[in-house]
């Protein structure tokens, strides 16, 4: 018995507050169905669970004090939980935090609370700059759980940005070798969300009386129009990067190594980043490795230099030894996705 399961059982025997009721709920009837919602920050996971749940959801939202706060007021730090009944059947809804720095909860959900999920519902925000990267990342992170159940991809915020299209997502999933249903969904629309539940549990949830968007089984066969994910960093990104806790410097360069903007006062470091920037295109064109998105280097003094690589620009971020490299990297990547 794992330590988490053991602690849960002790808590169930001794407390009835909301948070521990959630834990107890995870241990009850074996006939209940489970669904887990995953995806990046802001994709609508918490909203979707609140929309579907028969009761007020249990949420671990906290005030977003990092870069995420520019996009939304709160962020999930552990999990969200709700449930609904359909006939005599109960469906439990688990929401995973979107930020990588809380990924320890992904393991708890995938291996403990929602290990027997009927489906992984991956919610993706179409307004982010590189949703294809999000798709590939979360498919990889939850690979085992997807293989043991099924994958349903729900694309949100398409009213704000209609591309990529469903055809693009189908193409990307095919390239990943993954079979999945793909639907547009509004996390605030109960009927649309019931489509997701019907796809996951067709014998439990009846098809809603709303137009059904295409799935992997009736997707357009023609190739979609070319869609190129390209992130263009503005000079002002350095101001935002410097607000991240633990960051001590930021440098923007082009692939030829020319410095475009810098908050750094060390010419040697700028020259070093310029050298790295100039070497990256040559290395990638001469190698058979996948394109690198970031490189991490550490100085003899323990400082971190993380280099973020885009097609037209290179961003070098210097952070103190005591800073959480994982947190810094996550926040810079959020800036790139939302800039």
UniProtKB/TrEMBL annotation:
GO molecular function, one term: hydrolase activity
SUPFAM superfamilies: P-loop containing nucleoside triphosphate hydrolases (SSF52540), Roadblock/LC7 domain (SSF103196)
Superkingdom of origin organism: Bacteria
Family matches, as InterPro entries: Gliding_Motility_GTPase, Gpn, P-loop_NTPase
Keyword Repressor: no
Record's signal peptide: none
CDD domains: Ras_like_GTPase
Alphabetically ordered keywords of this record: GTP-binding, Hydrolase, Nucleotide-binding
Cross-referenced Pfam families: ATP_bind_1 (PF03029)
Family: Belongs to the GPN-loop GTPase family.
Descriptive protein name: GTP-binding protein
Organism the protein comes from: Neptunomonas marina
Higher taxonomy: Bacteria, Pseudomonadati, Pseudomonadota, Gammaproteobacteria, Oceanospirillales
